[in-house]
Amino acid sequence: MSDNGARTGTATPDGKAPWGAVVTPAVVAVAAVTDAWLVILFAAIGRQSHDEANGVVGALSTAWPFLVGLAVGWVVVYALSRRGGRTVRPQRAWPAGVTVWVATVLCGMLLRAVTGEGTAFAFVIVATLFNLLTLVGWRLLAQLVAARRR
Q1: What does the pLDDT look like over 23-39, one tens digit per residue?
Q2: pLDDT 10s digit of each residue in the chain, 150 long?
Q3: What's the CA gap between 103 and 109, in Å, rounded?
């Protein structure tokens, strides 16, 4: 039997697995790279809106605490996927997207506070909302597209 989703009862009538039904290394890689790119985009947009210089290096210096938080979120998602024999699909909004989002913002803000970087209330709100819209939002859009294909 091929690994097309039929084994888990998630195959469509034509025998193909719907997007997100099978977790492959490629699916995980695409989700992780998309998340990292969105976190770096968040930092770059923020730096540009404040007319801060240093381009890529500056964006990465702003992004690193959130990238660490993102990594923590991915570790939690991985741990959840190993617990109880369930498969946590990293490209799904729940629980993967929400877990990654919360870890990204929470760890990112904690690291910024510990390292003496700014954690102004407005920044916390903007970071929380932007990362919610992007880290969970792309997953919701992907699920919507997948549902319409069925």
Answers
A1: 899 999 999 999 999 99
A2: 334 443 344 444 444 555 556 789 999 999 999 999 999 999 999 988 876 667 788 889 999 999 999 999 999 999 988 887 777 899 999 999 999 999 999 999 999 999 999 899 999 999 999 999 999 999 999 999 999 988
A3: 10
Among residues 73, 91, 103, 92, which one has the least CA distance to residue 25? Answer: 91
**Calpha distance 8→85 (Å, rounded):** 12
Q: What is the DSSP string of the chain?
A: --SSSGGGT---TTSPPPTTSS--HHHHHHHHHHHHHHHHHHHHHHHHHTT---HHHHHHHHHHHHHHHHHHHHHHHHHHHHGGG----TTSIIIIIHHHHHHHHHHHHHHHHHTT----HHHHHHHHHHHIIIIIHHHHHHHHHHHHH-
Contacts of 125 (CB under 8 A, 6+ apart): none
The upper half-sphere exposure of residue 36, i.e. CA atoms within 13 Å in the direction of its Cβ, equals: 13
CA end-to-end distance (rounded Å), the chain: 22
